[in-house]
Amino acid sequence: MHVLILGGTTEARHLAERLHGLPELPGLELTSSLAGRVASPRLPVGQVRVGGFGGADGLADWLRAHRVDLLVDATHPFARTMSFHAARAAAAARVPLLGLRRPGWDPVDGDVWHEAGSLGEAAELLPALGRRVFLTTGRMGLAAFADLDDLWFLMRSVDAPEAPHPAHMEVLLDRGPFTLEGERALLREHAIDVVVTKDSGGAATAPKLTAAREAGIPVVVVRRPPVPEGVPVVPDPETAARRIIAYLAGGVPPGTE
To answer: 170 - beta bridge partners?
Structure first.
């Protein structure tokens, strides 16, 4: 039996940990695939491959060649292209597909959120909301903010960004999880008056939302892209592991309990 996890997320690593060496699945071959966009990623247990597949057709060929029994899409909620490639490849290779997506964030009382459908829409909202921006959307897509010369940006990411990016920008290289006290201090020390984030969900980067709420700072939240229709999705590694075990051990479809 062979499971391929399209990973790079905390949930993907936790899923690999739960599946590795299970007595219920003796002889399970477990492979995690990372896109390779981070220079020093946190590696999961089991076999790891790094790099792309060459689109949906390349992934389908890989599934066939390596006799994969189940494909798990545990990529980032904003990895839209990879998710659609996974759906196409799974269908072509006739391999069951299970999606693993952490739930998105929901606003609570006191939040001042402004939703945007894309990074471009987020950039259009900023001039009316503030002048000192905490940008937490990652190093990809900074070109959307490159023309905002009247604004100052604090950009946080794991690796250094490349041009094009805003002219007035300080880069903070850091990796979550982040603490609430740390996020409070960051907003205060840099005089941040607006935050931009993607609706990534999860607890690792959520403290910035609490810190912004406490300070009365508006947050521009970029909505998640659509996901492929018909793909069963679970919200956490525990549920994913339970369904994977049920499928591989007894043939229960991965989209059901």
So the answer is: 154
Q: Which two tokens stand for residue 255?
A: 């989209």
Buried b (16+ CB within 10 A) or exposed e, 60-97: bbbbeeeebbbbbbbbbbbbeebbbbbbbbbeebebbb
How far does CA 206 lie from the centroid of its chain? 13
For residue 115, the cross-strand partners are: 221
From CA 113, how far away is CA 176, in angstroms rounded?
Answer: 22
Domains, the chain, ordered by start = 2-103+225-250 (3.40.50.720), 113-222 (3.40.50.720)
Distance CA 190, CA 156 (A): 13
Task: Note down pLDDT in tens along the chain; length 257 residues.
Answer: 999 999 989 999 999 999 998 888 888 999 999 987 776 778 899 999 999 999 999 999 999 999 999 999 999 999 999 999 999 999 999 999 999 999 999 999 999 999 999 999 999 999 999 999 999 998 888 999 999 999 999 999 988 998 899 999 999 999 888 999 999 999 999 999 999 999 999 888 899 999 999 999 999 999 999 889 999 999 999 999 999 999 998 877 787 65
pTM above 0.85, yes or no: yes
